[in-house]
Every structure is written in C-alpha cells, then in structure tokens.
Design brief:
- By secondary structure, the chain is α+β, with helices and mostly antiparallel strands.
- The protein has two domains: 253 residues, Clam (outer membrane lipoprotein receptor (LolB), chain A), CATH 2.50.20; 97 residues, no CATH class.
- 16% of the residues lie in helices and 35% in strands.
- Strand 3 and strand 4 form a beta hairpin.
- Helix 1 packs antiparallel against helix 2.
- InterPro entries: LolA/LolB/LppX (IPR029046), Sporulation_related (IPR052944).
- This is Outer membrane lipoprotein-sorting protein.
- It comes from Luteipulveratus flavus.
Length: 365
C-alpha cells in the first residue's frame, strides 16, 4: 500500500520537497543525521524523498497529543480527563488510532469520563460519544475521497501534512541527529523560520528510520520552553489492522442520528461560494513567510451559523477578549503561544504567528 496513493494524509512531503529541491530558498544547515547511531546518514532532501515513497500495510497505535496555545479557558470539559473531541484544543489527551487505506480509519479519544470515536468504513462514518450516549451516522456520497470530519488530526502524519502544506521557501530545513519515539529509532527533521519576528521557533518531525513514516510532530513557540503542540506515537504497529476495527455497532441505549451527506458542489458552485466569502471579508496578506499577517473584515456571524440561530454571536465572542489600544486605534486582542489575533473597533481582523506589535504596525497602515 503506497502512502501517497492510499494515504492522502501523508502527501505533505511533496510541497516541502518542492521547496527544498526546486524553490532554492531553503537553507541547508546541519543537513545530515548523526552518525553515532545504527541509522545510516541521510540528508534532509533524502528524508523527504523517503517519506514520499514510504509504503506500509497499515498503521495502528497509541497517540498522545498535547496543546498549550495560551488560549483562555473554554466552557465544558477540558484537559487530560476529557473524552470530547472539542477538548483537543488544549491539555493532554490519549488516543488510539487505526488506518488501513484512506477509507478505513478509526480514532478513539480516551478520557476518564468516557470515550469518543470517529470511525470511517468506506462511505460510512460514525461519530460516537459514550459520555453523551449519542452517535451520528454519516453516509458519504459514492466515491468520496476523504473522511467528512478530516478536521480532526488523527495521526502524526496528518498533523505533519497540515503544518508542512503551509510552508514557504523562507524555511531552514535540516536534520538534527536522531531520536527515539515509541521505542523506534527516528531521524529528527527540523524546520526553522529564516526570518526573525515569528512566534514559531521551530517545527520538529520525527521520521521512523525503517518505514520512513512520521512518528511525532512538535511545534515550539518562542514564548514557552515546552512544545506548544505535540502529537506523537507512544506505541505503533505497521501491520494492517483487523477489518473489525472499522465496524461500529452503537451500544444499547445510544441515541443514533443518521444523515446523508450531499455530494460536493460542482466547481462553478464552489467558485461562487469562494467569491462570496472573498467579497464579504476582503482578505489580504501583509508580508511573507512566517511573519506574514492576514487581514480581513470581521464576518457578521460565525461561519456556518444561520441568521437567528442560537449560539454566541461574533460580537459576543470578541467582547470576551482583553481590550487594547494604541496609535493604530482600539479593539480586542487574543494572544497565544503561536499566534496573535486582533479585532479592531472598525471591524478589521488581523492574525499571524507574530507578537502584538507586528499586528499593530499592520493595523496602522
């Protein structure tokens, strides 16, 4: 089974390899792995090529994910004991994962108060919460190529792809020796911003020395010493999981809701949606690379929220943030470990992996 053809979640290596080999803007320092281990020496470019050609029957194991984004406390369960998927935004969590092709995947988030599962078996997707005793059964359209809820990063491979897909040629890519993850020897690929002024110190991806599958992802902030985001295997197996892992039967007493997912809109319909979003928010990017700032108009309502629908409004959420002011004007600010967001009183949103001063300068333009 090829990780490129059967696991779209690891296609992240392609754009990074292109940046290294074609873009010409990536600096190569500390380019070889330490020779004092059993692993042969590999350059960063060789490792990226290894990942692209990696092929395993499947993958399963235990994953520990932690996030310290510096966000304010959110209502509801959070932290190590929570089994709700929404709690992944903060704290430390343990998950079991299985994958046997792009359409056979399972994630089980384990907590002291229960378990939540996301299971895909072909065109059937199940979302189950043992704590709420509820399950949603989604029927995907024929030929669907990705899980409906792919916003949940189930494995280090998926986390790697999401981070690395956003990289630009302003990144130093190097190999910082070797490490051990889940009892396996691995190379440590390091991505560092070339330019100063970013809240991101570096991104470290541990790549298995034998299978070339990513085993762990760490994102370090300039504001805290421990990783701001870390997703990694504590145990892993590269055999094909049993087919029974992807068959879900709701426990007795579960409230089941069944929904049929409509086929994706045609390209013309999608373009109209994009055009409408661009017209409403007027996004713009100031700067480049890791210190770029995205500016846009604040939407009148939450994405996906219909007019008159229950739930907090944009104004209510913004009003909960600390108030700031300066020569640029006034507004509300959210400062995290990896990003800062600023909502001005005149309806502008500025966000970037930068300190507040960089947003203030952009707001004054």
């Amino acid at each position: 089974m090829s990780l490129l053809t059967d696991h779209p979640s690891v296609r992240w290596a392609a754009p990074v390899a292109a940046a290294c080999l074609i873009g010409g803007g990536v600096v190569a320092s500390r380019m070889t792995a330490s020779a004092d281990t059993e692993l042969p020496t590999r350059t960063a470019a060789q490792l990226l090529n290894d990942v692209q050609s990696a092929s395993v029957p499947g993958v399963s194991g235990t994953v520990v994910a932690s996030a310290d984004l510096g966000l304010p406390a959110l209502p509801g369960p959070a932290g190590r004991g929570s089994s709700e998927l929404s709690s992944l935004i903060s704290g430390t969590h343990t998950m079991r994962v299985w994958a046997a092709g792009s359409d056979r995947t399972r994630l089980a988030l384990l907590g002291s108060n229960g378990e939540s599962d996301v299971v895909r078996n072909g065109n059937d997707v199940w979302l189950w919460s043992s704590q709420q005793k509820k399950a949603t059964h989604l029927r995907l359209p024929a030929g669907s190529a990705a899980a409906h809820h792919e916003s949940v990063p189930a494995t280090p491979q998926e986390t790697s792809r999401r981070i690395l897909d956003t990289l630009q040629p302003s990144t130093t890519v190097s190999v910082d020796g070797t490490t051990s993850v889940a009892g396996r020897a691995a190379y440590e690929l390091v991505l560092e911003p070339k330019q100063s002024g970013s809240l991101v110190k570096d991104v470290r991806v541990a790549i298995d020395g034998k299978t070339h599958v990513p085993l762990r992802v760490q994102v370090h902030s300039t504001r805290i010493s421990k990783p701001a985001i870390e997703v990694g295997f504590t145990s892993v197996d590269f055999g094909r999981p049993d087919a029974g892992q992807f068959t879900f039967n709701p426990p007795p007493g579960t409230d089941v809701t069944t929904k049929t997912v409509a086929p994706q809109k045609n390209s013309a319909g999608m373009m109209n949606d994009v055009a409408g979003l661009l017209k409403a928010t007027k996004p713009n990017v100031i700067g480049s690379g890791w210190t770029s700032v995205l500016t846009a108009r604040v939407p009148e309502q939450m994405p996906g929220q219909k007019s008159g629908e229950n739930g907090p409004s944009v104004d209510q959420l913004v009003g909960m943030l600390p108030r700031v002011q300066g020569a640029w004007g006034s507004g509300h600010q959210l400062q995290g470990t990896l990003f800062t967001a600023l909502v001005t009183d005149d309806g502008r949103l500025l966000v970037g992996a930068v300190p507040p001063q960089t947003l203030y300068a952009a707001a004054a333009r």
